[in-house]
Amino acid sequence: MDDTKIALVTGANKGIGFEVARLLGRAGVTVLLGARDPGRGAEAAERLRADGLPATPVRLDVTDPASVTEAAKRIEDGYGRLDILVNNAGIMTGWGRPSELSVDDLRQAYETNVFGVVAVTNAMLPLLRRGSAARIVNVSSSMGSLTRMAAPESGIPMMTYSSSKAALNGLTVAYAAELREADIKVNSADPGYCATDLNQHTGPRDPADGAAVVVRLALLDPDGPSGTFEGDTGPVPW
Ligand SMILES: NC(=O)c1ccc[n+]([C@@H]2O[C@H](COP(=O)([O-])OP(=O)(O)OC[C@H]3O[C@@H](n4cnc5c(N)ncnc54)[C@H](OP(=O)(O)O)[C@@H]3O)[C@@H](O)[C@H]2O)c1
């Protein structure tokens, strides 16, 4: 088997996902850039290729089951396996106090941030099982830390986004437990508060800095951890 690693990054056409793709490319990984808009995906892949990095766009809307199936088939036909899956695609919706939010507000956030991750992970698992010591990284947030949400100084949590990321962390722990025997490590990453479209560029960090912890977990050594939640400086409290 060719030992060049193959990675799929969802929502890789911009922001932290794009920087994850760039860093993985620099580490010698062949990167498949998941993007729901084919034009934006092609443009992002072209930017990486212009820098000499091997990148290919894959149309992938994580909320669209047909698109997820099609992406898995394309990867199967083209590469036959996957070594790294970065579940990065995410949205921040549903502002307001918990009592002002509707079930639909939560459903919308969960469709992408939680259900989309399950759909993509389950579709890619047969390919990841064929990969060499595969890694799955779920891009979470410290806003999904229940410990931080419960701290009095945190005020009222942003219920839609925060609870969706707490649920995502639950997925990390569950998949890590199931996949331990398959030697597939599954971890949550907290990129920190980065300037991206998600937050109208209010974050103080560069998205490339946020991408670093994601890439570290994507390239973990065999003795690295699984079922953890990590940021730049180490573990983030659940
Ligand atoms: N920025 C921060 O401070 C911060 C902090 C902690 C965690 N995070 C997490 O980091 C991840 C990346 O966020 P970001 O800050 O880089 O935001 P961003 O710049 O808005 O990028 C989000 C990416 O997700 C894609 N996406 C959204 N819905 C999708 C769907 N249904 N299917 C496929 N792709 C979809 C977007 O595609 P389009 O271009 O088509 O919209 C875009 O590529 C998210 O999971 C976010 O929750 C961000």
From TrEMBL:
SUPFAM superfamilies: NAD(P)-binding Rossmann-fold domains (SSF51735). GO terms for molecular function: oxidoreductase activity, acting on the CH-OH group of donors, NAD or NADP as acceptor. The keyword NADP applies. Keywords: NADP, Oxidoreductase. It comes from the Bacteria. It holds the Pfam family adh_short. InterPro entries: CBR1-like, NAD(P)-bd_dom_sf, SDR_fam. Coiled coil: none annotated. Belongs to the short-chain dehydrogenases/reductases (SDR) family. This is NAD(P)-dependent dehydrogenase (Short-subunit alcohol dehydrogenase family). The lineage of its organism: Bacteria, Bacillati, Actinomycetota, Actinomycetes, Micromonosporales.
